[in-house]
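Box 3.1 — From sequence to structure: Alkaline phosphatase
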Amino acid sequence: MNKVYQKNDINNQASTCQGLIGSIRLANTNTFAEQQIRPFSHPDTVLLYSKSISVALIITGIALGTLANLVTQLPFVLFYGPLSFIHDDKTRIHWASNRGSNSYHNTMYSGTNFNYSFNGKQYQNVLPDQIQKFVVMTDIHQNNQYTSTMSTNYDFAVFCGDYSNSGKLSEFQNSFQGMPTKPLLMAMGNHDEPGNFSQVNGRGKNYFQKVRNLGFYFIHVQQSTPIVDLEVDRGIQFILDNIDIGVKADHVFIVVHHPVFSTGEFGSHQYFSQKIESLIVDHPELNIRATFSGHDHLFSAFQKGRQYFFVNGAGGGGIDQMTDSSYGVRKWPREELHGALPTVADNCYGYDLHLDSWMKFTRTEVNILKDKIVYDVRDLDSDVILQSYEQPI
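Predicted structure (token representation):
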């Protein structure tokens, strides 16, 4: 890996390289260079990581002070993006210049509020000091019908996994083409695991992110489709090892692809469910408000004590019919369910905590108010709120 140091005039903006693209198509060659821009402590200095020998040859003999001007003049085809990822106290802008496996690029910006230009267009990255609303979606499965038509009346979005069908990055592209450039946070799904999801997400399977006064633990408990006790232990241990940062948040949420409780095809996994229950009971200082998951392609809501457990309805992938379940105990003859249900097997653990289920494409909208949190479940086809759940704080 060649390292190139360059002075760049930032004009006192948080955007470290305004207008600088991270993908260069070289003349008469198919070689691409991926550059990750990371700010140093000095505000006028950035470090460019060049992953291409070809770029290093071009750089030879060119004054480094003029390199940014050269780069900004080079045309490229934008396939999708930019997507804005919240990354610790920074922002990572992700995009792809075509469908090739070497055309995925990430640029790291310091801070969360800045203006930047990208492929000839101006963008504004904004994360307000006081979060009022974030939205939760899951299981896009490379169908951008709902992500491309999202309204922008939210502060940031959380996704619970399964953006692809087989882990291909091109499938991820399909899921997010045309999506608003609002800040994002993402968990890994079982369909994303076969591919190099970290190339998009820039994170490991388990990570913590603080967003103003909110804290999010993202954990992964699956290997392909089945849930695995070892992965559960690793996910729970990650939370336990990072309690010291979680307690600094006023409201904490756990995001995991596999549901804690569910009326869907895969249902509950008692070992995982009980681990989450114990975590909440043993560590009240964490202020865990809710868990968000997906995987079962229908919406379900459960409540135990003051905590809510949401299975978010599919955001593009096909709806799993309750009547098509391979488990006979869950062949419910209705499109929606309400109230407590009989608990007759391990995979039905938690049915006594059940509130509501719908076979619909949904989005969960989380409204952070002064004295309560309100969870609105919106039907993505009718744009109607199916149910609201209020949580005093």
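Summary of the box: The chain is about 15% helix and 35% strand.
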